[in-house]
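Dock iron/sulfur cluster; give full complex structure.
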Amino acid sequence: SPSDPDLVERARAAKERLGEKVFVLGHHYQRDEVIRFADVTGDSFKLARDAAARPEAEYIVFCGVHFMAESADILTSDRQQVVLPDLAAGCSMADMATAEQVAECWDVLTEAGVADSTVPVSYMNSSADIKAFTGRHGGTICTSSNARRALDWAFSQGEKVLFLPDQHLGRNTAVRDMGMSLEDCVVYNPHRPNGGLTAEELRAAKMILWRGHCSVHGRFTLDSVNDVRERVPGINVLVHPECRHEVVAAADHVGSTEYIIKTLEAAPAGSKWAIGTELNLVRRLANRFAPEGKEVVFLDRTVCFCSTMNRIDLPHLVWALESLADGKVVNRIQVDPETEKFAKLALERMLALP
Ligand code: 13P
Ligand code: SF4
């Protein structure tokens, strides 16, 4: 069981044996049993920066998903080794854009005569290959906390943006935050010839959105928002920008996991909040803020955990830490040097955004 005192003690002991050699990063969507052993917690952006700021740690244990561990490997020195406690902790959204599909898309854009004026912007939730493609073509990475700044920068470099792989974050940022219209956005479907778009549609668009989405956030609907407002009068609706556009449009506040936490910290006692994001985080926030008289509920009770985030559990963490303490590196995530070079370029552009 996750609260098995023996496992808790083993994790503690292994961390103690490793001392300064190990640094454990935990994404906000991780289980309680894992997050308690994290040296730092954060959203994707904060964790990427924190990983890069720990040159003394020989081992970075990443409690999160595969693309985050890859990014940590890219941003840390070659001497440092990044470990993902369960290699099956992927991300279904990141898997929706493969290197071959994106290369084909770029050919379609080239055919239509728009590639030269298009800047790729890729969400952190993408493979190292996609990040390398982005770096090679003059683009940047973004996260949910800096998507607006990334798009502002991209539109200073070109006329159009190819936004990968989350159509919702791309659309929400363009329309809600930057005042573009829904008609400025087209969706490129990698499973259709030419992405399902004509050359004229590509030429007329400002935002070319990849047809990807998050399977967790995609399940919140406009009904979820309307129902909770009806059930709890005066409730504030706060959602992650990976939610569908109509959900974001109906919400009161929109932001990354870190933003969600900061907003609740600043909220007055007696306020009520419905949160549209992953369940581990919402539960933790509900428990944390209840004593302060802030009521936190889940936006839709039928939506649940991110199953791949949940793969990292205490037994996997104990196994990874004990192996490292015995001098054996398991589940190392290592990006090949050529991919790393261009992916790093794109990540560094993000880190340099104003
Ligand atoms: P943030 O932590 O950047 O808000 O991202 C959410 C997410 O889906 C990570 O997989
Ligand atoms: Fe991927 Fe969504 Fe899970 Fe985040 S919450 S890791 S985007 S599937």
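Observed: The mean pLDDT is 96.
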